[in-house]
Predict the 3D structure of the following.
Amino acid sequence: MTIDQPIYFDDPALQEGFDERAALLEFEAGFGREEAEKQALAEITASRLPEGE
């Protein structure tokens, strides 16, 4: 069985970071899947901003 995962980043390293963060938020922190993915996307996107923005 294959689970569809959203692809948000062209860079495989960023996508892997997103996938790992979303999984941690969902399974370790108890977030629902949608909320975990939303939070992970925000965190990974914010980590790419230049400092001070």
